[in-house]
Amino acid sequence: MCKINFKIQYTDADGDNLQAAQGRYKLKSATTFINFNINVSNPQTPDITTHGEYDLEVRVQDTGGLWSEWFASSFKVSENCGGSTAEFQHVIGVGDCKTIPKASNTTDIWVDMSNGQPNVIDRLDRVYTDEAMTILFNEGSGGLITTFRVGVRSSVSTEILWINTVFSIENGVITEVIDCDGGNPGGGSSGGQVTTGTINTGCDSGMVVTINVPPGETKTISVTKSGQANYIGGNQSGITADVMIGRDVTNKVITETTSFGLVLDAETGNEQAQSTITLSVQGGRSYTLTRKHQSNPNFC
Questions:
Q1: Among 17, 127, 177, 206, which one is least packed by beta carbons within 10 Å?
Q2: For the whole prediction, is pTM greater than 0.90?
Q3: End-to-end CA distance of the chain
Q4: Per residue in 17-65, pLDDT tens?
Q5: CATH of region 18-77
């Protein structure tokens, strides 16, 4: 639902004060206005639940009891303001660029987008499971990072339109946003993409990044690790790829599309600490695998 704020500019030849105001609005395609009373100290429309372009008219009353003519304006509603009767609802489920969650395994969410780009789900945005935005989304057990897909469901259909992006979420905060680079999850592109999202086990965490190289071209990648965890470990996450990264790599030139397996083993430590592996494409973007340290990890 959206409430549209507006300003009333008032002058009176007789010196009377603004006493009251009334408004009416309608979709531009409609023929009948919807009337509403206006709080003159905080002018705004009622909750509006349908996207579109609207006509708005306002009239005012002075202390002498006289009403003015209707003054015309317009506004547009193009985004979901987060109300329970909104036309569209965000949903979330575990997934990656190759895997879309089943509708039955999704959760309704509300996203506070004030920390990132306006009207775009982005890093640092907070994700909630209640309309009042008081209960942060719980990303999973043990503090392990899992990747998610976010979709939009219409209130008049069960179909979900999935955003072609993978999100990592910690304590309700989006920490990483990965563009899947294609029209369909897992689809090819001239860039890179996460083709297997983060898999966490008690022993290790792993993911697969595929770097797409068009015929006749080359790309240069580098890989660096930070933190105490080691490369590969026992690979209980079952990661398979063309190349399994077992050490830092500097300026490796690849001549064809190649998948790279990134795996971090378990590490003892404060759960606030973490280790990472970052694969960077020269002149392009970077992809990071993160694993939190654990007080009692399994070593495989």
A1: 17
A2: no
A3: 51
A4: 778 889 999 888 888 889 999 888 888 888 776 777 888 888 888 777 8
A5: 2.60.40.10
